[in-house]
Write a sequence for this structure.
């Protein structure tokens, strides 16, 4: 089974989560700003909340690579506890891409909130979640 772990991260929170998932699955975490190089059965998409939803770079990635994505699994962090899953699922399904109902969400440090999150425990839980989706 071919697997990709992709992320969009303005700070480092989402990248750290993606790197933990990638390490567990034996692949590298790659930015959504890099095009896909062939088909992947499962793409773990680590996309946190900015101004209420995923960054445009994330939906652009899905659109540009729709034919090469077998299934998307969303992981995100946020200050509020909200996830990008619902918006990404709606947008991706409009593009013909399947998105798993299961998703991972944890707090992400933002200003004075959630200092240090995602922490080692969050990263370990994300890695376990990802493994269970295969
Ligand atoms: C510009 C900006 C806008 C944000 N908007 C929201 C938001 O609308 N809702 C929310 O819950 N968190 C929001 N956050 C918090 C981020 O989701 C959180 O800090 C996340 O962990 C950032 O990941 P990153 O370090 O990979 O960029 C925002 C953060 C930034 C920097």
């Amino acid at each position: 089974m071919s697997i990709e772990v992709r992320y969009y991260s303005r700070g480092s929170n989402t990248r750290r989560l993606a790197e933990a998932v990638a390490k567990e699955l034996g692949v590298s975490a790659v930015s959504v700003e890099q095009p896909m190089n062939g088909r992947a059965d499962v793409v773990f998409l680590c996309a946190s909340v900015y101004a209420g939803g995923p960054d445009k770079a994330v939906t652009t990635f899905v659109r540009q690579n729709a034919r090469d994505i077998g299934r998307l699994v969303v992981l995100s962090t946020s200050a509020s506890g909200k996830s990008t899953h619902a918006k990404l699922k709606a947008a991706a399904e409009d593009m013909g891409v399947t998105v798993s109902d299961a998703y991972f969400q944890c707090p992400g440090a933002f200003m004075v909130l959630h200092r240090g999150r995602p922490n080692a425990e969050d990263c370990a839980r994300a890695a376990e979640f990802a493994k269970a989706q295969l």
